[in-house]
From TrEMBL, chains A, B, C, D:
InterPro entries for this protein: ACT_dom, Formyl_transf_N, PurU, PurU_ACT
Enzymatic class: hydrolase
Record protein name field: Formyltetrahydrofolate deformylase
Lineage of the organism: Bacteria, Pseudomonadati, Pseudomonadota, Gammaproteobacteria, Chromatiales
Keywords: Hydrolase, One-carbon metabolism, Purine biosynthesis
Source organism of the structure: Arsukibacterium indicum
């Protein structure tokens, strides 16, 4: 007996849940948890169905495809670790947090490799015996740099790329290779303080709360679908540096909670938003 | 076209969602939102289905009853205000908060009447033109006092009783009249600081967080199913009185959020717990 | 025996705390609580000293003024209710929340009057027997409208103006009459979603957290010193209207917490920021 | 120029702040930040003074001791890393979190050694090149076990012991060696769910919030002064195991925030409470 998650997305119509769950029933699958959402504006239907039983993926998906309307997307996802490649620059906190959570069993990732545009974090990768590829951006064009990264990542066949404080902007071309599969942590409570040095901006504005945003990366910088946001309070005692330090905690927390949601097959992309079922 | 919520509870079995949603489909009802939960320990199935369409309640419920296993409970609930009677003692904050939220349209309650064992809060009831019944407990037995309250409440036929800082313990007999329909706000983060004067207890223990618990009342004092809990931070600067004051804010917030969940037909009782779908 | 709060602000120099507290000691005043902050960037010194004893305000302030460097500001504030005039438009929730908190004793304000540019909320003011001035902005110039408001407010001699969802932008000239004494609640987590319809913006961006900002009003719209910010989580189920509704709760909470800080004489303005001691 | 923190505790009397800050001024020390608290119940005075300048510790403390009343305690603490020994059993998450925060520079601890009553976590210690002492409790009396641990720890001369999920109860005798210097993370929101298996208890009670408590250890199990408490929401979907997993996140967060407060010299013990200045 196995457990899998069926994610379905299609234009809404009457009887959809009945059709899908009838097929599951016909396949002798038990529904452990079912959550559904219809967007009232777009009329798009989203459903997450956790199934238990003996799976014949091919016939199940065949039956579903015959029943669902044109333009539907469905995926049948196994439980268990997602395969990722992590991209980093020089800051250790997000990578370290992920590595430790994988180590202590609280985050089901299979970290296939780490790619850094600086060499600093290779020592951290080594502690956990994970391949580290140092691909410097110095003296190469952005296009060439991205091609090197893509070529390095490809053999690992990751489910997702995780940008754990990777401080390079990715081109639309790069992003297209991993559409809705690149997860970034942005060091602000988007859309506040877009761009560089958000903590300095937050300090100058005298805010009482700072935050971080985990989101899928799309072609528009800082505009991809938000998966998770977290915040914490600050006060006048915080210098810009203190805010950045406090922010690192929030960044770690938001990124790892987003990754947890992705691991649990709970995140569907919906235009430039997410539906978290 | 109307919108209603179907709440279903029964022992789990394969095909349940398909059966229920098939019936909805047969009745030409559109499923706006569907959330389901199966308790892995007890194997009990819970589902909340928000339906839209033209309802024939009788035939819909008849079809459901025929399809569902023995021991099922289902209810088809309209949208809109719940009818309540609020019981109070002398503290104004929870009652005032509810009255104001009903007044400004943010909480869909129809407050039929207020019952107080003191007269103090009748002035507040008057401001909002709600009948206030002062039923003193002085010089009467608990049984007689409760009988007077029950007799006063009965004609209003409330969906729920709300204990908004009603400081009298209700007998099992009283509770039986409104099984899982009495909502209390308890002035602590249950199960911490059970009993009287929880803020004094919290102060003496030097806690850094205080809380409040909204729960259904059952026969066991402080033991009914928890609907909502909220907390806030405190520090060494808080005296016991300051904690009580801060606690009043949390009490209001937890009670009104619990009431909001009840208004949205999202709370199912599950033994001594709740399932909030 | 009385309790008063001394707020001091001046350029930092060695021995300042000693000088100030020596003077308090000389005046036989007991220091109940003392909190101090020096801005490391500007070198400005801020101190809040809660004093207990028998006060001779004139000689105490005289001694302080002699001791403190040029450019110092200090105020000796009594405990107890602040006198305010509340400005509103048509939304009841913030005004209602303040009225109820004053009523139940949890917020020490003396609400001298309410000014509305619409008539709607006069019924709410009446419930609490507070004078309501309807000063419509229709058919009058902004300057004339503001002059009418100023003339109406002046006799009440308020300590603060509270903009409880007052949806008119105030001119620099108006603001100058109540410098750092106008408290506004902004319906977004500033600086995100500046301007009109922030909840629609938040909805379209698909954020997972919304917030509100209580701030002093200065000449720059949405740019005044932030006193308090609060947030709450939302998810894909929230329509723009749901977000606005959830936002109203946060607006109330942030505004009333900011007012509480002001009542406790804890807020000092520091350029376009606040220091909350 | 150096920065040090002076912590002072003594019975309150008029002029104390003036006396202390006069001495600082006389020593040409600048006060960067000063926070003071007087317990209104016990009349005990607590002050934290961050000083900057050239220190002559001996004369400064001599002057203070002469000025302060009998029964005073004061300490002059350097900035910078605290020296700790961490005690663990088999769970990696708290130890891992601390190690990673020290590694990435966000927590200023000097982890001198790790002591475990099981061998499991030695591999984790090795990654960070920290001595790991496996001192099994099997086949030895509690007294002997504790003596072995004490003997092992002593040469490291730690400022604090950190119990990072050390699942053994320490005797009063052990605790006496490190009075108010042993920091424990308790896996519940104390005083709720005291004792073993709090997550099972929380699950059975159907709570909507779980928490963790970081506290100093005293002779009474689960009764020492609370430094920090943190919580997170849970719901009916959480099994006892899910709660335990969610709880591990809160445990890490509460412990590391408590350690951060200790590192910043902000925590004073006050009977069975803490004052965090």
């Amino acid at each position: 007996m196995e457990r899998k998650t069926l994610l379905t997305e299609c234009p809404d119509s009457k009887g959809l849940i009945a059709q899908i769950t009838n097929i599951c029933y016909k396949h002798q699958l038990n529904i452990v948890r079912n959550t559904e959402y219809v967007d009232p504006v777009t009329g798009q239907f989203y459903m997450r169905t956790v199934l238990e039983g003996v799976f014949n993926d091919t016939t199940l998906l065949f039956d579903l495809d015959r029943a669902l309307p044109t333009g539907s997307r469905r995926s049948l996802l196994s439980e268990g670790a997602k395969r990722v490649v992590v991209l980093v620059t020089r800051e250790a906190h997000c990578l370290g947090d992920i590595l430790m959570k994988v180590f202590d069993g609280s985050l089901a990732l299979d970290i296939a490799a780490i790619v850094g545009n600086y060499a600093e974090l290779s020592a951290l990768a080594d502690k956990f015996a994970i391949p580290y590829h140092h691909i410097s951006h110095h003296g190469v064009s952005r296009t060439d740099h991205e091609q090197q990264i893509l070529a390095t990542i490809a053999p690992y066949q990751p489910d997702y790329l995780v940008l754990a404080k990777f401080m390079r902007i990715l081109s639309a071309d790069f992003v297209a290779h991993y559409r809705n599969r690149i997860i970034n942590i942005h060091h602000s409570f988007l859309p506040a303080f877009i761009g560089a040095n958000p903590y300095q901006q937050a300090f100058e504005r005298g805010v009482k709360i700072i935050g971080a945003t985990a989101h899928f990366v799309n072609e528009q910088l800082d505009e991809g679908p938000i998966i998770e946001q977290m915040v914490r309070t600050v006060d006048h005692n915080f210098s810009a540096a203190d805010m950045a330090k406090a922010g690192r905690d929030v960044e770690k927390a938001a990124l790892s909670r987003a990754l947890q949601l992705v691991v649990e097959n709970r995140v569907l992309v919906h235009g430039n938003k997410t539906v978290v079922l």
